[in-house]
Amino acid sequence: MRLRSLGCAGGIGGELRTTSFLIDDDILIDAGTGLGELSLEELQNIDHVFITHAHLDHIACLPIMVDSVARQRDRPLTIYSTEAVIATLKGHVFNWAIWPDFTQIPDAHKPFMRYQSISEGVPVMLDGRSITAIHADHVVPAVGYHLDSGKGSLVFSGDTTSFDAFWAYLNSIKNLRFLLIETAFQEKEKEIAILSKHMYPSLLAEGLTKLTRPADVFVTHLKPGDEVAIMREIGHLVEGEVPIAMPNNHVLEF
C-alpha cells in the first residue's frame, strides 16, 4: 500500500492543508483541505472515503469533491465511518440546507454517493487491503484507522487524546511499520489540549514509552504557527528516536 500525505496540518495558511491522505489511487482517509491538491482526474479515481470524525478540518472538501466528480463517474462514491459520524454527515452537511443529499441524486436507486457503516475492530477488505477503524478518544465520536497491506501496517490515530488501549492495540500489530499521531498543542496550552481531547508533547512522550513495537513515528495536526515550538518540545521530551513532523506530499509505502 502507498500513502500520500495531501494535508496533515491543524489549520490553513500558506502551504498548510488540513487532514487528508490518499491511499494508492482509490482510497481517502479523511477529506480536509489537502484534498484540493489532487487533479480532477485523480479525484475521479477515488472510490472509497474513510472518515475519522465529522469536524470540519477533516471533511471540508468532501461535499465539493462529490459535486465536482459525480457526473464523470459511473458508480457511487462510498463514504465509510461509524453510525454516529454518518448521522452527523446526514444531519448537518448533506442535508439540502448546507449541501445537497447526494445519496438521492440523480435518484435513490443510482446515487452519486452512498454511506457504509463500519464498526470498530472489524476490517474492511478492499482488493486485499485491510482497513480497520480503531477507537479514538475525542470530544465527538471519532476513530483512527489501521491500514494493513499484509506486508506492513500503518496506523493513523485521527484526533485523540492518549489512552492505554490505543498503545496496547499498537503493540498487538506484528507488522507495524508507521504511526501517524496527532500533537496539536504546545505544553503551555496543555489545559486547552485536555479540554479539547488533543495531544501535547509530554502526553505524546509518555505514550511512546508504552509503545513496544518498532515503528517510524510521524506527528500530524500541528497548530499553524506553533509547528517549530511543538516539535522542539517533542524533541526535548521524547526518549530514543524522536518523531518527525509529517510533511505535505510525503509518501509512505508498506
Question: What report would you give on this structure?
Answer:
There is one protein chain. This protein is of the alpha/beta class. The chain has one domain: Metallo-beta-lactamase, Chain A (4-Layer Sandwich). 24% of the residues lie in helices and 25% in strands. The chain contains eight helices and 14 strands. The protein has helices spanning 40-44, 56-59, 62-69, 83-92, 164-171, 190-196, 201-208, 227-237; strands at 2-7, 20-23, 27-29, 48-50, 77-81, 113-117, 124-126, 129-135, 143-148, 153-156, 176-182, 216-220, 244-245, 251-253. A seven-stranded mixed β-sheet has the order 6-5-4-3-2-1-14. β5, α4 (83-92) and β6 form a beta-alpha-beta unit. α7 runs parallel beside α8 (227-237). The longest helix has 11 residues, at 227-237. It is globular, with a radius of gyration of 18 Å. The mean pLDDT is 98.
Quaternary assembly:
single chain
Computed CA radius of gyration, to the nearest angstrom: 18 Å
So what's the CATH class? Answer: Alpha Beta
Percentage beta strand: 15-25%
Map the helices and strands.
Layout: E1 2-7, E2 20-23, E3 27-29, H1 40-44, E4 48-50, H2 56-59, H3 62-69, E5 77-81, H4 83-92, E6 113-117, E7 124-126, E8 129-135, E9 143-148, E10 153-156, H5 164-171, E11 176-182, H6 190-196, H7 201-208, E12 216-220, H8 227-237, E13 244-245, E14 251-253
Parallel strand pairs: 3-4, 4-5, 5-6, 10-11, 11-12, 12-13
Antiparallel strand pairs: 1-2, 1-14, 2-3, 7-8, 8-9, 9-10
Helix pairs in contact: 7-8
